[in-house]
Design brief:
The chain is built from 14 helices and 13 strands. By secondary structure, the chain is an alpha/beta fold. Bound molecules: pyridoxal-5'-phosphate (PLP).
Amino acid sequence: MPGFELWGAEERKEVNDVLETGILMRYGFDGPRKGIWKSKELEEAICKTFGCRYAHLVSSGTAALTTALSALGIGAGDEVIMPSFTFVASFEAVLSVGAIPVLVDIDESLTLNPDAVRKAITQKTKCIMPVHMCGSMADLDALKTICKEHNLLLLEDACQSIGGTYKGKMLGSIGDAGTFSFDFVKTMTCAEGGVVMTNKEDVYIKCDGYSDHGHDHKGVDRGADLHPFIGYNFRISELHAAVGLAQIRKLDTFLSIQKKNHAQLKNILSTVPEISFRIIPDPGGDSCTFLSWFLPTEDITRAVVAALKEQGILAGNFYWYDNNWHYIRKWDHLKNSVTLNSLHPDLKQAVINNTNKNFVASDAIMGRCISTAISLLWTEEQIADKGNKMVATIKKVLAKQKETV
Ligand SMILES: *Cc1c(COP(=O)(O)O)cnc(C)c1O
C-alpha cells in the first residue's frame, strides 16, 4: 500500500524546488514562481499515467469525492448507492453534499454486489459509487450496465486502488468521474491530497472552480476572476503536489514490488486448503496493495486473529469486521446519524433507515475475511518467514477446531 516506505532524495528534490521560490500556492504569482508549477505538472502526469482526459488535484481523497459529487450535480434528496465495506470518507462525502448514502451488501469481491445494487435502486437514485477496496476492483461491466439501464452516474472511489486496472483501463478513469487519495498510507502519497479524474470537460471545469471558491480561473489576475457558482476551498498546496510528483514517477516500481510480494505470500497461504481468496473481477488488474483471504467460518477467523496476535504476527493483518473505520458493523455514529449540526430531518431519517438494515450477507463475508497489507520493504526471506509463521498458526487453529467438532 504505502509509497511513503520508499521516500527519498527524489521527493526532497521536488519539495526543495518549491522551498527555493517560496511560492507555496498553486495559483498565481507567475513571476516569482520562476516557472515552477508542481500541481499542474502532477495533473499532467496523472492524465498521462492513468489515461484520463482531465485531472484536478485537491486537498484530500475525501475532498475529491465531495468535489466530484458536486460537479456531477448530486445533492439534496439524491440517493447514492455505495458498499457496506469502505472507508468512512465515502459516506462523509455523500452527506457533505446533502445526498443520501444508500449502503448495500458486498460480495466476495469485497466490493458492491451488483444484484444488491439493482435491488436498492429507487426513483431517487442518482449515482452508483463503487469503492475499489484494498487494491482490487468492483465488477465495473455489471455496474456500467445497471447505470445505462437506469440512467445513473458512475463515480469510482478508487482511493485505495491507484494503479489497478479493469480490462485494460485504469481504475478511476472508467466512470463519469473517479477519485484517488494521496494521503500518507496510500499507494502513492502527497502527505495529504487527492484528485478527481474525468473524461468530461464540464465536470472538470466544475471541479476546478468548486475546489477554489468558485473561481473561474480564466485570467491571470486572481482578484478579477468571476464566480459562476458558489464553491469551497479544497486546494492542494505546491509542497504537497511536489511530493506527489516524485511519487508518481516511482509508481511503476511500487506496483511491481507489490505484485511480486503479493504473489509470493499468496503462494504460501495457498498451501492451506481451507483458505480461499477474494474474487477479482479482472485478476490481472489487482494493484496488490493487500492480499485478502477467507477462512471457512467467523469462529475460525476469530480464533486465527487471536492466535496471530498471541504469536506477535498480527501486525499488517486487518480483521475489518471488528475495525471501526471500514465496515458498517461498528459505525454507530452513522447508524444513529450523529452530527454536530442538524441535518435536514428527511436526510437524518433516510440515513438511519439506510444503515440499520440487515447486512447479513456482508457480515457472512467480512466475518471470515483477513487482509494482509503488502509492504514494499519486505525481502523474499522476510515474506517466506512471515508466510510460514502465518500458515503454521492457521493450521494449528484448524487442527484444534477439528478436534472439538
Ligand atoms: C483513504 C480513502 C479515502 C479518503 O482519502 P483521504 O485522502 O484520507 O481523505 C476515501 N475512500 C477510500 C476508500 C479511502 O481508502
